[in-house]
Amino acid sequence: MNLALISGIIATILGAYSTIPYIIAILQKKTRPHQLSWLVFTIMNGIVFFSQFLEGARLSVMMTSVFFVGSLIIFIMSLKYGTRDSSKWDKALFTFALVTIVVWHVTRSNDTAIWLTVLIDLAATTMIILKLRTDPHSEAAQPWIIATVAYIFTILSLTGTSFGILYVRPIYGLVCDATLVLFIFYYSRRSRSKPSVDSPARI
User: Fold this and answer.
1) Among 152, 159, 96, which residue's Cα sits nearest to residue 123?
2) End-to-end alpha-carbon separation of the chain, Å?
3) Dist. CA 41–CA 35, nearest whole Å
4) What is the chain's alpha carbon radius of gyration, rounded to the nearest angstrom?
5) pLDDT at 201
C-alpha cells in the first residue's frame, strides 16, 4: 500500500469519526448546531464532492463524501436540537452562500465550483464564529480537531498528484478548521475569565 492510499483511508476514517462526537455532543445538549451554517455545509460538501470527483479526484474525495453525509445528518438534527438565532450578519452570509451556489450552477465549471466552495465555507464558518462570540460553549473542540488532522491526511493522499486545483479544498479545510479550533478555545477561555453574575435559581 502506498502513502496516498494509506492517507486516503486514514482521512476517511478520521472524517467519519469526527462526526460521531459532534452528534453525541448534540444529543447531550453540549453543542447547539447553527441551522443556516449546517445547511450551507451540506450544500457545499455536496458540490465539493461532485466537482472534485468530476475533476478526477478519487482518494482525496473519500473524506468529502463522509463530510457530506455527516453534514446532512447534523443539519437534520439541528432542526430539533440546534439554534435558529440569526443576526443580520448571518442572513447576509447565508445570502452570499446562495449567490455563490447560483454562480457555480450558471458557469458549470468544476474548477470554479471548487473555488466558490471556499467562499461558501468561509461564510458558513464565519456564522459559527459569530455564534461562538455570543455562546462560547456551543461548540465542542474535539470534532474540529479530528477534522483538522483528517485534512492533513487528505493532503497526503494527493501524493503523486500535480499541485493544482485538487489541493485547494484540503489546504483551505486544514487552515479553516484549525482556525475554528483556536476560536473555540479563545471564546471559551474568555467566558471563564469574565466575572460571574448571579442568576435566578432554576426550578
Assistant:
1) 96
2) 59
3) 10
4) 18
5) 36
What does residue 139 show for φ and ψ, rounded to 5 degrees? Answer: -135, 135
* 173: helix, strand or coil: helix
Q: Determine if the pTM surpasses 0.85.
A: no
| All three cell numbers of 185 | 478555545
C-alpha cell at 15: 472524517
Cell of 148: 483538522
* Three-class SS state of 124: helix
Q: What is the pLDDT of residues 131-181, one digit of tens each?
A: 898 888 888 888 899 999 999 998 998 888 888 888 998 999 999 999 999
Q: Where are the domains of the chain?
A: 3-190
Q: What is the DSSP string of 39-101?
A: HHHHHHHHHHHHHHHHTT--STTHHHHHHHHHHHHHHHHHHHHSB----HHHHHHHHHHHHHH
The pLDDT of residue 29 is: 85
Residue spans of the chain under pLDDT 70:
1, 57, 60, 194-203
Q: Write out the three cell numbers for 160.
A: 503523486
